[in-house]
Amino acid sequence: MKFSNLLIKWYLQNKRDLPWRSTTNPYHIWLSEIMLQQTRVAQGTPYFLSFTAAFPTVFDLAAASEEQVLKLWQGLGYYSRARNLHKTAHYVAEELSGVFPATYNELLKLKGVGEYTAAAIASFSYNEVVPVVDGNVFRVLSRYFDVETDIALASAKKEFAALAFELMPKDNPATFNQAIMEFGALQCVPKSPNCGLCVFNDSCAALQKNKVDQLPVKSKKVKVRNRYFNYLVVADENENTVIQKRTAKGIWHNLYEFPLIETEKEEGFDHVAEQIQKDFYTDDEVVSIMACNEKSIVHKLSHQHLHIKFWKVNVKGVIENGINNETLKSFPFPIVIHNFIEKE
């Protein structure tokens, strides 16, 4: 009990004032947890505030179009989260009359809700005695108890969940879960934690054995794929341009982009100009082609590094289905394209 008591005492003195902590509303907690997957709190908070302002209830979110949701999500990345969010809102609004499931096992059935998110909603909204296990929890427990289990293994989550459950005060699971995650986020950080100021510096096994920087153990490095994107920013005589929707599975599904030439390696003007004339416009339709950025913009995703060039292509006449700049800005784009549009 010493661990739990010290942890909760630390939390009550040091916790951040975050908007989703002042409620037990499962809609708000679900929104925040989906947004904070793969996202820092500082980045996710403005999105949470925007979403709750635009869609105060799950019915409002369900009634929105997917494009509205993706536009508001723009820049937060991992867009499958937004699409699943929208589908789940439909399900909760239409099939469950707007009432979120009240147990961990039922929450797990929602699209986009995994073990961690279900545990967070179940404990924060309904005070169910179920531990959350995220990167922060792995780090805190592995260091405090000197657990050398490789957290990349599928079995690790069960082991750490069992340990967290054992430590959790059964009459106050929500505060314990918040506390251990906050402790990992603010105090027991991945690199160079200030162990001298830690409330556990007389009982942490990793500190006593000088192993803080070795834990948690994590193997399996992600193999990164390099891809080379050449976007064609077409302009006709009315300065209208053309965009397309990414409908194939993979990155940026259902977001918009300029016409794309993907190449095997970084290519220069001659290769791109040849491809434009071969696949898009004939030689007599093109007025000029110009690189908007000489060096590729490297946009890093978890498993892919995208090397992106934008090419301004002026064409004669008026293009079919062309849109003006104001209309262009209303569509949801990947953030790297959005930033390019905003600068133009």
Automatic annotation (TrEMBL):
It catalyses: Hydrolyzes free adenine bases from 7,8-dihydro-8-oxoguanine:adenine mismatched double-stranded DNA, leaving an apurinic site. Keywords: 4Fe-4S, DNA damage, DNA repair, Glycosidase, Hydrolase, Iron, Iron-sulfur, Metal-binding. CDD domains: ENDO3c, NUDIX_DNA_Glycosylase_C-MutY. Residues 35-186 form the HhH-GPD domain. It comes from the Bacteria. GO terms for molecular function: 4 iron, 4 sulfur cluster binding; 8-oxo-7,8-dihydroguanine DNA N-glycosylase activity; adenine/guanine mispair binding; metal ion binding; oxidized purine DNA binding; purine-specific mismatch base pair DNA N-glycosylase activity. Belongs to the Nth/MutY family. This is Adenine DNA glycosylase. It comes from Flavobacterium hiemivividum.
